[in-house]
Every structure is written in C-alpha cells, then in structure tokens.
Amino acid sequence: PRARVVYAGARDCSTTALDEAITTVLDGELAQVITNSWGSPGETAGRAQLQAFADTFLQAAIEGVAVIFASGDNGDQVARRGERAVDFPSSAPWVTSVGGTSLGIGADGERIFETGWGVDRTSLAGGAWPALPGTFLYGSGGGTSRVFEQPGYQSRAVPDSLSRHLGGARARTVPDLAMVGDPNTGIIVGVSQTFPDGVRYGEYRIGGTSLAAPLVAAMVLLADQHAGMHHGFLNPALYRLGGTQAFRDVVAPEATLAAVRVDYANRLDPSGGLVYSLRTLGQTHSLHTTPGYDDVTGLGTPRGMAFIEALGRDR
Asked: Which of 64, 98, 233, 305 has the most crowded CB, counting CB atoms within 10 A?
C-alpha cells in the first residue's frame, strides 16, 4: 500500500519514444521494477530497434532493475496475423514475460479453477447458441521467438517441442510465468468516465496480460521488501524455482469451462436491449496448457507467500 508508483509517459507511441521512457526511469533511478503492457506483434522491429531495446534491457539488468512485459492478448496470433508469432519486447531474453490465466474464485475466496487464458465466443441468436465454442476472442500471448536464441536459464525447463517448434536451433519461448488475465475472471476497476450526461464515476471489469504483468510486478516488490534487497533481473531465479512450491502449475481443465456474459447492446443502459454471449475458456488453439513449462502460462502462477519467501532465499 505504501509503494511509490512512478508513471513514465512516452512522448508518442513510437518504439523510440517508448524506449526513451524506460531509459528515463533507469537513468533517474526512479524504480526497482518496471512493468510495461505494450508490444509489437510478430517481432517486426528492425535490427536497429532490436539493438536499442536490447541495450536498454541489459542496462536494467546491470543496474538491478526488473523489467516486466505483458505477453500480449492475441494468443498465438494466428487469428490476427495468419501465422504463429510472439510479441516483442516480451520475447526479449532480458525481460520477464507474463502470460494470463482464467481464474475462478468462489464466494468464500477459494480457488475453484485456473487454466490458461484463451477464450472463444459465440452469441445467442434466435434462442439458440450457434456452433460451439465459436471464434477466437482473446487469450494469453505465447510461443516461440523467430529472432532470439534460447537463453541459458530456459535450457532445462523448456521442452524441445517448444524451443524448436519453428525448426533449427533452440529459441526463446514465452511467457516466463502468468497471473490472472481473463477479463471474464479479472478484476473490477473504478474510473471517471464520460457519459451522455457528463463525467462521473463508473465501474467495469478488466483483464488482459496488462493486468497480469503489474500483478507480477507487485508480487516481486513484496519479495524485494521481504528479502530486504532488489532482485533485479528475475528470470534465472524464476527458472531455478520452476517445479517447486513457489509456483502453481496451471494445466488444462478436465471438463470444458465457460461463462455466460450479459451486456448492454448500446454499452450504456438496457434501453437498447441485451446481448448474451458464451465465453468458452481454455481455448488456446496452437498453444497448450500442459504440466510443467508451457507456452500459455510459462512456469505457472506465483503461489503467494511461498513464492515471495522462495524468491527471497534465492540470492
């Protein structure tokens, strides 16, 4: 609650400006953990941009600053790009890539289920659901890099079926770990919104790996506080803790899970009618949520104090 949160805004949405925003934090020693929720689908940045970001992330690692990136919300990118691809800079070896899960919480706060975030949607029409599970809506970004070789910290955890999915030498695979990301099981946020009658307070559910990444950042800050030190670049420690009680291994559900959504047709009030949609969970398509490391949830989700204490012991 008393953490100092610094927002560094880029002057525009170009990759150069975004890199400058991160550099501003590093040069000013403004934070010990940096979290970002943006990316370039398909690792399409040119060689000069890749090198610029690589230099920035290496600077962060040397200075003991953790850099965390959301892995993206378009799953394997096939629906968007027509081929499997990962997001950059999430795929960069010097950053920690965070994927998403669908997390069911009961009335008493208990964990009912957790699976890899991937959602297909179909809408009620004429009193019936069309062919299920519908079409891809959104999901945790993941897969195999076409640009970066496999870093040493992944060599024992990531199976060759993933690191060599594209053929050739072993490559960087993302994500590294995950937290809740599915908007259907996400969190409620309150913001000032513009309505037809003016600006007033409103609430809505939100998710995405843009939720998962800052949640991981918060866990890391708690681990820093608990250990009395900055952990800095996280990935070697995370992979040393893979397969231990520090992580909850996320696997596919035994039975199909789904959520029914009821939304205002006009996104404002019931005057325009209601829209009913069925959101089928765990639909990760060419990505798979499996025991051990996988390309949807990485090593799994941090297991509360077990993660914080284990990370503190790993110095």
From this structure: 98
In whole angstroms, give the CA distance from residue 127 to residue 114.
30
Model confidence at 315: pLDDT above 70: no
Verify cis geometry, omega within 30 degrees of 0, for the bond prior to 89. yes
Half-sphere exposure of 159 (CA within 13 A, CB side): 9
Tell me how far apart the alpha carbons of residues 45 and 109 are, in angstroms, rounded to a whole number: 43
Provide the 3-class DSSP secondary structure of residue 83. coil
What span, in angstroms and rounded, lies between the C-alpha atoms of 259 and 257? 7
The answer to whether the beta carbons of residues 14 and 38 sit under 8 Å apart is no
Q: Is residue 182 within 8 Å of 103, Cβ to Cβ?
A: yes
Spatial separation of the C-alpha atoms in residues 98 and 178, rounded to whole Å: 5
Tens of pLDDT, residue by residue over 150-201, are: 999 999 999 999 999 999 999 999 999 999 999 999 999 999 999 889 999 9
276 C-beta neighbours (distance < 10 Å), count: 14
Angle at 125 between CA 122 and CA 126, to 5 degrees: 155
Give me the residue label for tokens 């501003």: 24
| Closest C-alpha to 250, from 312, 293, 308 | 293
**What 3-state DSSP class applies to 258?**
strand
Kind and range of the H or E element at 222? helix 209-227
Separation CA 100–CA 142 (nearest Å): 10
DSSP labels, 74-109: BTTSHHHHSS---EETTT-TTSEEEEEEEEEE-TTS
* Confidence category of residue 46, pLDDT binned at 50, 70, 90: confident
Q: What is the pTM of this model?
A: 0.94
